[in-house]
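The records we work with from here on pair a chain with its fold. These numbers are not coordinates but entries in a learned vocabulary of local backbone shapes. To see the layout at work, look at the sequence and tokens printed below:
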Amino acid sequence: MSLVSNWAKTIRDETHFPWNHKNPNTFNEESQVQMTEEEIALERKVQSRSGMAKYWPVVASGAGLFSDGYVNNSIGSVSTILGILYPNEYADSTAISNVSSIAFVGTVVGQLVFGYVSDYHSRKIGMIVSTVVLILFTILASASWGAGGSIYGMLAALTAYRFFIGIGIGGEYPAGSVACAEASVLMGKGKRNRWFVLFTNFMIDFGFVVSAFVPLVLLWICGPTHLTPVWRLTLGLGAIPPMSLFWLRVKFEENDQFKENNMKNTRVPYWLVIKYYLPRLIVVSLIWFIYDFSAYSFGIYSSQILSRVIKNGDNLHEVFGWNVVFNLFYLPGSFLGAFAADYLGPRLTLTIGVGLQGIIGFIMAGLYEHLSAHVGAFVVVFGIFTTLGEFGPGDQIGLIASKTCATPIRGQYYGIAAAIGKIGAFVGTKSFPSIIKGFGGSTTLRGNQGPFWISSSLCFLSAILAFFFLPALTQDAVTDEDVKFRAYLEQNGFDTSLLGDVDKRAESPSVEKFEETVMEKH
């Protein structure tokens, strides 16, 4: 088969347009033709779930990422307020970067620790513990206080609490998102990717929007002369979303995919895992690093960027108001990207989105002087730049990470990729001021163009990596990956009969069945 034919087949397999497929909610004897026994069993299981029974596991496991968007983005507005209240102790010290970026360090720790917990114990335990940590330390952060009323002590306490908040957020990735990916298998074909995205990345983006709107509302209520309750309540209200999910997670039931394929009762063949998944993990992690490097930097510093564009940049009402408008642009890209993930497939959607984002970024950099003279035009173009990022890597990279590895090590694989992404966010937020300074400073044209030149160049690198080095994902990617991984382990002498919970092993397909499935599919 020629190279062109191979590419054509790959694209045909990963796309899923409604007019090219039968109604995914219809399943009868005719539709069983050319389906394996495992696929038939899965389709019957899908049909057995009625109404909201299909959706609650996805909601309970994925929606916790709202806290990631809210907590990480709200600190941008809080940082602006702290800089006004404490110009010497905060704005002119290392506290301004520590408070903003320390949560990313905690998130990396949480992603790695909970990746292990979710694979070796359960997704449910990981989700419950991360939820409790989030609630507790979000409340403590809002009540940060220094001994004897010390401002430096208060800022140190806020920094410490945000580190632990980061650990809670980190747990949401390998526990919640991975459970969400496995729960999405019970959706009909053609809908699985969108539901994962709508309750993971769309939740993060919705958190971005709410985190921009809340301080504006509080500013209207308290006024610009009472900023302390504004920043404290902005942080404290972040505890409400995880509280609302707690009971759903207590009632959450582990997916059969995890029960039948985990390695809780056997030794993990790490060398085999590394040989099989390391190249793929490197590509996924690098794309995630690049995306978070830009996305979180622009998100956290958006209010400061806008304050330099707005003529009356000292007017907090105006700065926060335009920041809300800017953050609203996250939603259309994320929403459309969720459906494109099903129709075009995650790999192609990521490539298209990040490629277009790079083009818009170069246009912004080139026309920055003219755009900055018109705040409305600047916010619209900046918003389009952002929404394309969400349409592409924002929506797709977590989906790809969760569906390009097998169930037994999905939590650790996803946790490592997400952790490297958050390292990118940490590096970005720490280096963002230095990039501006290196290009000439925030008061110069080149200084403000610099971040867009760098970010846009990285966008094109991500597009190349995605298109040429990421695997194509079909609607059956989760189950297919388990089939392939079991066959690979068996070929290398690993006893796959030891996989899964003891009470589920008798129900799981035999190794021979899995090998037959692989042969039928390929």
About this structure: The first helix runs from residue 3 to 14.
